[in-house]
Structure formats: structure tokens, C-alpha cells
Design brief:
This protein has about 210 residues and is an all-alpha fold. The protein contains ten helices and no strands.
Length: about 210
């Protein structure tokens, strides 16, 4: 569901079909957010390239923590749910919910707490960030390149979260399979879609020469 009309899979041209199939390969279905990019699939391709470069120098735990808390601060349910689910690789459901609620003391290190606070500040109001907040990160061992990585990850999440919320994109109904005690605290903005997720048939193999 979105506020704008999107291209259904059965009416997609080759470029949009290829984009939908790439997304389906990752998710198991065509996610709602991909559908709004049917008007400009090249933008999603460029975002994917940018995101890959943002992620490249960071370890997965750091990237996911920063993205998760930025999504929460931005009030985007889809990103919070998606990245909260990825964090299950590193934390229990209860710990992830505690991070979401700001109860981080017994869950992450002091350095990660400083990182989370900086990421939240970047997502909520970067214009109010102070040099002192950056110095706190340095005191916890982050160098300037790592501080850049934290800032660009949180700021990059703002692009996608604000775009999706501006267009009324709902989190996919697949998230309803998550336990309610985990799902509800992470649904911080738009409600989860109740419509069944859409899947596309796999492309038929092309005949080979000879």
C-alpha cells in the first residue's frame, strides 16, 4: 500500500521486473518499498550502490545497530522491524527491545552506547550535534573515519525512511510472523500491512544455443 500508484508485477516492464526479482531474491517476495521505486528503478539501484559503499568498511553488528536506532528515531516501522530482525544474529529478542527502549547499559558496551546516542542525535536533529558529542566518540576509541561511518549510516537511513513514509509505504505483512512482544515495540510509525505479500514467478530459462 502507498499513497501513489505503483506498477503491479504482472504489468511490469523488463526493467521493473528485473528490479522486483532482485528484491524478491533477498526477501522471498516483492517488498512494499520496492514497489514505489517502480517509477524510478534507477534510483533504487543507485541507493543500493551507495548503501553497499556505506556498509563496506563497517562490521555488520555496528552497521545494524546504527541503522536500527536511526530507524527508531525516524519513526519508520519498516526499517526498525527489518533491521531489528537482523540484530537477532547478535542479541536476544529481549535485548533488542531493550535497545529500542534506550535501556542499553546491560546489553551493549559503553563504546556502543556512545555510538547509539550519536546515531540517534544524527537521525533526530543533526543540526544540534556538538563537537563535544564527537569527542565522546573519540574518547571511546572511534577514529574520525569510523565517526564518519556512523554519521553517514544514520543520515543515509533518513533518506530511505523519509521517502517511504512520505509515500505511505507500509511494512510488509511478513513481519506479522514475528512474536508480538518483539514486533509491537518496533512498530514505531506506520502499521504493518495486512495484505498478503506478492511473489513473482521465476523467469523461464532461456534456451541455449546448439
Amino acid at each position: 500500500m502507498a499513497f501513489i500508484k505503483t506498477t503491479p508485477p504482472e504489468a511490469a516492464d523488463p526493467a521493473i521486473t528485473a528490479m522486483y526479482l532482485r528484491q524478491q531474491a533477498n526477501w522471498g517476495y516483492v517488498p512494499n518499498y520496492a514497489k514505489v521505486f517502480s517509477h524510478r528503478p534507477e534510483v533504487l539501484a543507485r541507493w543500493a550502490q551507495l548503501l553497499a559503499e556505506i556498509k563496506r568498511p563497517m562490521d555488520k553488528r555496528r552497521f545494524e545497530l546504527v541503522t536500527f536506532v536511526a530507524a527508531l528515531e525516524l519513526g519508520n516501522s519498516a526499517c526498525a522491524l527489518a533491521h531489528g530482525k537482523v540484530l537477532m544474529e547478535f542479541f536476544s529478542d529481549e535485548q533488542i527491545v531493550a535497545i529500542a527502549a534506550g535501556r542499553c547499559d546491560a546489553v551493549v558496551s559503553a563504546a556502543e552506547q556512545a555510538m547509539i546516542a550519536f546515531a540517534r542525535q544524527t537521525a533526530s536533529d543533526a543540526s544540534q550535534t556538538t563537537a563535544g558529542q564527537v569527542e565522546v566518540l573519540r574518547a571511546h576509541g572511534f577514529d574520525d573515519a569510523e565517526i564518519f561511518d556512523i554519521a553517514v549510516t544514520a543520515a543515509g537511513r533518513a533518506f530511505l525512511a523519509k521517502l517511504l513514509d512520505a509515500l505511505g509505504v507500509l511494512p510488509d505483512s511478513a513481519f506479522l510472523a514475528l512474536d508480538e512482544s518483539f514486533r509491537c515495540p518496533l512498530t514505531v510509525g506506520r502499521p504493518i500491512d495486512v495484505r498478503e505479500c506478492v511473489t513473482m514467478p521465476a523467469p523461464e530459462p532461456q534456451p541455449t544455443a546448439g
